[in-house]
Amino acid sequence: MAEQEVPPYFLCPISLQIMKDPVTLSTGITYDRDSIQRWISSQKNLTCPVTNRPISSAAELTPNIILCQLIQSWSDHNPTTDLDTLPVTTSQVLDLFQEMNCLGKQIESLLKLRSMASSGSDRDKRVIEATGACTFLETLIIGRGFREPVDGKRVRELSLAILHDLQLSKSNLKYLVNSEFLSSVTRIMRFGSNESRTHAVILLKSMFQVSDSDTLVSLKLDFFKELARVLSDHISKKATKATLKLLIKACQSGRNRMKAVEAGIVSILIDLLLDSSEKRISESILIVIEIACQCADGRAELLRHSGGLAVVSKNILRISDVASEKAVRILYSVSRFSGTPAVVAEMMAIGVVEKLCLLLHVDCGAKTKEKAREMLQVHAKAWRNASCIPEKIDSFYTIL
Fold first, then answer.
1. Residue 159 contacts by C-beta under 8 Å, 6 or more apart in sequence?
2. pLDDT tens across 302-342, in order?
3. What span, in angstroms and rounded, lies between the C-alpha atoms of 173 and 14?
4. CA-to-CA distance for 43 and 327, rounded, in angstroms?
5. Is the per-residue pLDDT at 389 higher than 70?
6. pLDDT reported for residue 145
7. Do the beta carbons of residue 33 and residue 94 sit within 8 Å?
8. Fewer CB within a 10 Å sphere, N or C end of the chain?
């Protein structure tokens, strides 16, 4: 005998699971108690997930006894049905797309689709993607896919969350790399919640990783300003790591490098590096600073920061060989292209010379030693009074 289809009103709009303890809000919408309580505890403003109307407190949860009895009766007659194991079907996804075209149905439908995407198997994610979710959700994010009156901000944030949860294929990630979509995601980063900003940078990181550098040369200044804000706001480690990866990829282009510097990235990264205690984050910060210092404005921003050189120098022989190499390359760029007498004197005063001398006597990369040796030779006269330079300075530099 064929398995009976679960009545849709038995399903919680949040979890899409059959409700075990249905409760109704003052808005008239029924949820499973566990799901709505988790929703309420995670929201700063108490709102109904489907209608987005305010609710006063969790005390408004009214047991829906009649629905509970109906569900129990149906379950007794269908003991083999286990909703947790039912796979997502193409028709389910298409039905949700159809509902999203109906006034007042978009939020509820997006919540259902997000539940499928976030809690489903890899197979379910691929079914949703193959049904055209990427294109459909892109239109919602850009703003072409919904009618008023609708909470456009919420529609965009939910659509972005679904794209994030789907872990899109390479072809769809490439498809999203277009100016209209990037502009829309930039707006979400500017006005969206911290959760949505995190979803944005993680999705963008995945998009950029599969894109050619040539396709990323036209990024706008506002895009980099929002990335800078994500870093300065310390949203989460996930957001920070994704943003740093984004910058490493985007700043391979000279134009983007200039825009990132103009957005204030260098100063923010120095402050972030000062407080960083995680190896991977510190390495990524130094990589971005090193890329930024390949242009004159980037070096100027580093020198403009009162602790710029000192913070970079501090990370030599402290974190990893990668961090030491990048820190030395930053100092090399500054000393070679922006090495005024004042800058060279500051480098000696804050202990850069001692670090460079130490590098010559420890096990580190050959390129790192070479950069350190060259800096010591170029600025030999200015640094001859440094405490790490021996009295027989001529013989010392002969050894170098």
1. 110, 137, 140, 141
2. 999 999 999 999 999 999 999 999 999 999 999 999 999 99
3. 27
4. 42
5. no
6. 55
7. no
8. N
- The CA-atom distances, in angstroms, between 240 and each of 101, 200, 269, 281, 358 are 36, 12, 11, 8, 32
Tokens of 172: 């769809």
Q: How confident is the model at residue 205 (pLDDT cuts 50, 70, 90)?
A: very high
Hey, what are 325's tokens?
Answer: 């190499």
User: Euclidean distance between the first and final Cα of the chain, in Å?
Assistant: 86
Measure the CA–CA gap between 192 and 185, rounded to whole angstroms: 10
Q: Please identify which residue in the block is written with the tokens 């003052």.
A: 26
Q: What is the pLDDT of residue 392?
A: 46
Q: Out of 24-28, 74-78, 246-250, which region has the weakest mean confidence (pLDDT)?
A: 74-78
Q: Which of 91 and 207 is assigned the larger pLDDT? A: 207
- Is the CB of residue 370 less than 8 Å from the CB of residue 329? no
What is residue 399's DSSP assignment?
H
Nearest Cα to 227, choosing from 201, 208, 245, 206?
201
The two structure tokens encoding residue 165: 């949860």
Q: Which residue has the tokens 């994610």?
A: 125
CA dihedral of 206, 210, 215, 217, whole degrees rounded to 10? 60
Higher pLDDT, 49 or 164: 164
Dihedral sign for Cα 315, 346, 360, 300, please: positive
How many residues make up the chain in this entry? Answer: 400
The C-alpha torsion from 371 through 261 and 338 to 346, rounded to 10°, is -80
**DSSP 8-state symbol, 294:** T
DSSP assignment of 86-130, as one string? PPP-HHHHHHHHHHHTSTT-HHHHHHHHHHHHHHS-HHHHHHHHH
Whole-angstrom distance, CA of residue 55 vs CA of residue 257: 47
Q: Could you give the CA distance from residue 103 to residue 146 in angstroms, rounded to a whole number?
A: 8
Contact 262, 224 (CB under 8 A): yes
Q: How many CA atoms lie within 13 A of 128 on its CB side?
A: 30
Tokens of 301: 């921003």
Number of Cβ within 10 Å of residue 271's Cβ equals 16
pLDDT at residue 400, as a whole number: 52
